[in-house]
Amino acid sequence: MNLKGNLSKRMAFMLVLSVFFLGAGCSGLGGNATFSMQEAASYAKKLLETYSSPSVSVALVENGVVQWAQAFGAIDTKTGRAPTPETMFGIGSTSKVIATTAAMILVDRGLVSLDLPFANYASGFSMQSPEAADITVRMLLNHSSGFPGTEYRGSVLTARNPGYVDGVLETLAGSHLKHAPGDMNIYCNDGFTLVERLVSAVTGTDYATFVRDEIFAPLGMTHSRYPTGPFPDGSYAPEFNADGSPMPQEYNNTFASGGLYSTPSDLCRLLAMFANGGELGGVRVLSEASVRAMGVDQTIGKFKMGVTKGARYGLGWDTIVQPGVELAGRTAWSKNGETGVYGSCVIVIPDLKLGVAVMGVSGIKSNQATALAERVILAALVERGLLASMPDVLPETPKERAQAPDLSEYLPGFYASTGGLLRMEQDARGNLSIFQRSGGDWTPYLEGLPHRANGYFSSDDDPNTEFSFAEGRGMQYAMNRGASVSRLYQDETPMVQKIGPGTSLSAAWTNRLSRTWLLVNMPRTFYTLDATWYPCLALEALPELPGLIFAKPQSKETYYLVRPESDTFAAMGITIPAGGGRDQNELVVLDVGGEEWMRFGSYRFRPLETVPVLSADVARDIGIGAEGDGEWLRLDPDVSGATLTVAPDGDSFRWMLFDASFVCVADSLARGKAPLPGAPQGGYLCLMGDAGARFTVTLATAENE
C-alpha cells in the first residue's frame, strides 16, 4: 500500500488530462453523428508516455457495430512495428465477465441454478470450514463466497499449467473461510476460477473449449483465446526488457478469473450482445433474463461500509453503476482487470447499446484503462447530443477547514489492510498524520491533514484524497474517498481496519520471530524475470501490538496480519468489505523431518538455518524429490571470487543465484549462465525442476578452475 506513490501517479495523470479533449471527426457513430480520433490519439500517446507503456488499443461499439478501433505504440521496439486492432492483449480480470457468461449459459439451459451450492455440481470440493458447503454458484460470481482470495502460486507463469484449478481446490481444502458465505462481498479471484470446474463438471467439456464454442464463435470473437500454448510472434502485444527485447509470453493460468487474451473489437462484440439483451446478429447467447440478472446490484443486503460505487458488484461486473458515466446521468456496467503485464477495462451503457473496450501493456493498468474508457464513452455521448459537454475534472481547491470532532475511539490507532500496516494519529490541533510500516520502522506518508467542514481530512495540495472514520459491526475502519485516475469523480471505500492487541505471544511464536524461511514450492516457470523477487518469509511482532504477528512473505515490505490461535496455527486477521480485505492467507507450522517449516496459503517455506553449505571444490549431485520442492544451497561463506557451475540434467529446470542479502544476481530462465565467475560469497543457490530432475553443482576456487 504505497499511498505516496499512488498520490504522485494521480497528480501526473491529472497533468495529462489537462491537455485532453475529444471532439468531432471522421468515423460514423449512428445517424449523422461523427466521432473524431484525432484528440483521442493524442491522449492515448500521452498515456503511453506518462506511464511508460509500449502499447494501448481502444474500440467503440454502437448498435452492434464496432464504429472505431485503433491501436497505438509499438509491439517491436527495435523495428518500431505498431500494433493493429487485431493485436491481442491480456485482459486480466475482465475475463470474469466471460466466466459469468459461461455460467449463465448453463443457467439458461437448466443445468445449473445460481442459488444451489457449488458442491452439488463439483465433487471433491471441501474446506476446513463446514459452512463452505453452503457456498452457491451466485456467491462465486459476486465475490461473496468467503474464500481467502487468490491462489497465486502456479497462476502467472511462462508456460501452461493445466493443473492450476486442481491446485486451487487443494489449497481451499486446507483453508478456512474468512467470512460466512454470502455475508459480504470481498473481491475474490478463486470464486471465478472455480467456474472452470463448474463448466467441465456439468458439460464434460473443458472450459476453454466451451467458451470458444458457446461464446467466441457465435459472437465472431475471432481474436480471443486462452494461453494454452505459445502465440505466434506479432499476434499479441508483449512487455519489454530494459534492452528493448520482448519478455516471454505471460501465461495467466487463471482462465476464468484472469487469463484471456483478446482485442477491444472482440470485447465490444461481447458488450453489444449484453446491450442487445443477450443476442447479436441474430444469434442468441444468453436469455434476456440472464443479462438482466448480471446487472443486479449484488451488494444489497450485505455488510458493507459506505457506498463504493466502483464495487457495486453485479454478477461478473465490478459495478453496475459506473461512476464516470453516472456523471452523464446514465447507468453503465463496467469491469476492469490487470495482470503483471496488462491492464484493461470495458464499459457498456445497455439502454444506449453503446460500449467501449480498452487494453494496454505495462504501465497502463486497470485504473489507467478505465480512465481512457470513461473519456471515450463520455465523448461519444457528447457527439450524440446526450451530454452537453465533457465533465470537468475535479477542482483542486482546498475544502473549508473545521474543528475535528472527538475521534479518540479511532485515534491514535494501528490499521491494517491486506499486506499493509499503518499508524494514524492526531496532533494537538486535530490534524491527521498517517505513517506506513516500512523497513522495520514507521515512515511518514501523509502528515498534518486538517479536518474539513465536509467531515473528512485532506491536504491543501491534494484536496480530493480524503480520509474519514466509521464503525460497523463493532469494527473500526479508516475510509478513503479518493479521486479516480481520470480526476472526474471521487469514490469512497473502506481502506484499512483498526487492529488492537491480542494476548501475549507464546514462547513458540516468540522464538520464530528471529528466524527466516525460504520458499521451496514455486513453479520453476513463475513469471518473475528481474532481481526484485525476494524468496524469504519472515515474521515480525510489534511491542505496541502484543499477541499479533505479521507475516512477510516474498517481500520485506509486506505486512500480512495473522492472529495465532495455537502454537502451530495463525488465522487471517482482518475483515474489510470490497477490496481492502482481499487475498489473505493463514499461517501454518509444519513438521517436516523434525524441522519447522511454514505454510502461508499454498506457499511452503523451509528454515534458512538448515540449508546445507556448498563447500569449495566439491561437486554436489542434487536431485528434485517427488514433491517437486526446490533445493537450496548456501555458497561457502569462507570462499570469495569462486566460479559457480550449475550443470542440469535435462531441460526442465531453473536455477537462481542470490547474494547473502537475497538479491537475485543470476536467473537461468532470464539472463543467467553457467559457469558463473565471481559467485557472491555466502550467497544462496535455488535449484528448481520437475520431480526427478538432477543438477551437478560445483564451487571452484581459482586454483582449481
Structural write-up:
This protein is α+β, with helices and mostly antiparallel strands and 705 residues long. The protein has four domains: 87-261 and 268-318 and 337-361, Beta-lactamase (3-Layer(aba) Sandwich), CATH 3.40.710; 421-494, no CATH class; 507-603, no CATH class; 611-704, Jelly Rolls (Sandwich), CATH 2.60.120. Helix content is 19%, strand content 27%. It has 13 helices and 36 strands. The strands form nine sheets. The chain has an eight-stranded antiparallel β-barrel with strand order 21-22-23-24-25-26-27-28. A seven-stranded antiparallel sheet has the order 17-16-15-14-20-19-18, with helices on one face. A five-stranded antiparallel sheet has the order 4-3-13-12-11, sandwiched between helices. A hairpin with a 2-residue loop joins strand 3 and strand 4. Helix 3 (95-108) runs parallel beside helix 6. It is globular and about 80 Å long. The protein starts with a helix and ends in a 5-residue tail after the last strand.
Strands side by side in the biggest sheet: 21-22-23-24-25-26-27-28
Output the radius of gyration. 26 Å
Poorly predicted runs of 5 or more residues:
1-33
The CATH C-level name of the largest domain is Alpha Beta
Q: Structural class, please? A: alpha+beta
The DSSP helix count reads 13
Helix content: 10-25%
Q: In CATH, what is the homologous superfamily of the largest domain? A: DD-peptidase/beta-lactamase superfamily
Percent of residues in β-strands: 25-35%
Query: Termini, distance in Å?
Result: 47 Å
Could you tell me the number of beta strands? 36
Main beta sheet: 8 strands, antiparallel, barrel
CATH architecture of the largest domain: 3-Layer(aba) Sandwich
Overall pLDDT, averaged?
92
Classify the oligomer: single chain
Describe the global form. Answer: globular
